[in-house]
Design brief:
Length: 158
């Protein structure tokens, strides 16, 4: 993964989005105010002081890309390195789980899949579907909301 390209791409995207928010007057409703869980119309300008502590020791570039996505879409809880009993990129530090509302998750998943190459994303799982770059495909039932990625967006990085 080209770490510098990921950092530059996500920083550029965040700057572009921040500029658009400022030009649009930065929504002021409770659902889209800075620090909220996300507005209904796109990324949310917010204070991103939460950092990457929940990410764990993720691979180079993953923390930076994850922090930018977290900030852009108003996601307060993100998990990174964790043991898994099934095949997963989490133990290798190459995956992040963004615990999101349906509206924020929809926007985050859409943005991530539209920018996979630029962000160094290998695949996205959300709402029992996977996208490896060729469109969404259904996944088998894993037994519960979290296992089926109904309550979070899973993003794996190259």
């Amino acid at each position: 993964m080209d770490v510098e390209a990921v950092v530059n791409a996500t920083s550029s995207a965040a700057r572009d989005a921040a500029g658009a928010w400022a030009r649009a007057g930065a929504e002021t409703s409770a659902s889209s105010a800075p620090g909220s869980a996300g507005g209904e119309n796109g990324p949310v300008a917010r204070n991103c002081a939460a950092g990457t502590t929940g990410f764990g020791a993720v691979a180079a570039g993953v923390a930076e890309a994850g922090e930018q996505l977290r900030c852009m879409f108003g996601v307060d809880t993100v998990y990174g390195v964790a043991g898994r009993s099934n095949a997963s990129d989490h133990p290798a530090g190459k995956a992040l789980d963004f615990m999101a509302t349906r509206a924020s998750g929809d926007r985050l998943a859409e943005y991530a899949t539209a920018n996979m190459k630029r962000l160094g994303i290998s695949y996205v799982i959300y709402r029992q579907r996977i996208n490896t770059g060729g469109g969404w495909e259904s996944m088998e039932d894993r037994g519960g909301a979290t296992a089926n990625h109904m309550d979070h967006v899973h993003i794996s990085f190259e």
